Amino acid sequence: MPNPSEILHAETRRYLRGYRSASLCAGITWQGAHHEVALRGKGTPPPTDAVFSLGAITEVFTAALLAVLVEGQRLRLDTPLSELIPRALLVDDVAGRITVEQLATHTSGLPHLPPNLHAAPQDPEDPFGHYSAGLFGEFLRSYHPERPPPRPHAESFLGVGVLGHALSRRAGLNYGHALRDLLFKPLGMVDTMARVTDEQAPRLRPGHTARGKPVPPWTFPALPGAGALHSTVGDQLRFLDANLGRGEPALVRALRLTHAPRVEAGSVRMGLGWTLSQVRGHDVVWRSSVMGGFVGFLGFAPDADAGVVLLSDHGWSLFAGLRGRVPLEAPGLALLSRLLPRP
């Protein structure tokens, strides 16, 4: 394998040239060994234990919580919402037939965003902060799908939020505490949580626009399962190790459940929370995010016994958005490609 630090620098150089004021923390796990670097195109790099918002990468952990509950026989992948959400909230029989697997694979038919997202005054700099448990309950009571699930794959931020809510009910804990007790503590992930602690606060990176303008934190009071988590590169490497088979056997079995391909999504396939691709004939499992002034990439290649995490405190540019490019996807996949076995 090439020098990990060298390839991390090489594959992120183009990103840092395009986002010169961005603080980027990057890491590789390879055969159980961790390599971390902190980088910046212009200025002082952040500490390697800097805390970032994970944004949409949170979905991977919501799916992991689902798998842990399935492994513990506390629910099934085909468990319908009618068994998890009280009838007083979910009144429509067709909506009640949506399963947790359909929510995790975006085949539930739920819209991308809550239809009543604008029913209360909204802060454009924190677009979900006003979306309360009351508004979420109103949506559930009023949701009447035109057709029963499953539906063709279509990304649904709302669907992952509903999944996080349903899993919290089954676990008997709020979303953050369920993940803490059932996943983070067993994996030694002390820096991953939905609410930043007083100890973490000085290490928390503020989000920025692509041009470096600070962005206030996004909050998710009613939909934490869709984007509320914060973490460090070190904790994400521990999570990747567990996905690569290192850890308590029951947790490893649960996480492997999330890797299996379940639905087609254009040129890729979807597992539970993960995107599945083929790179030079090898399976690569990954997820990227652009949300709230942060971008990120998390992925691993089982055949290489390797994983990569990239976390940055800058959002994407309008140009990248118009071209459909998530800034850290290309370097993340390129790093995994370089770690794969050569023919």
TrEMBL record:
Cited InterPro entries: AmpC-like, Beta-lactam-related, Beta-lactam/transpept-like
Any coiled-coil regions, as ranges: none
Residue ranges constituting the Beta-lactamase-related domain according to the UniProt record: 34-312
Protein name: Beta-lactamase family protein
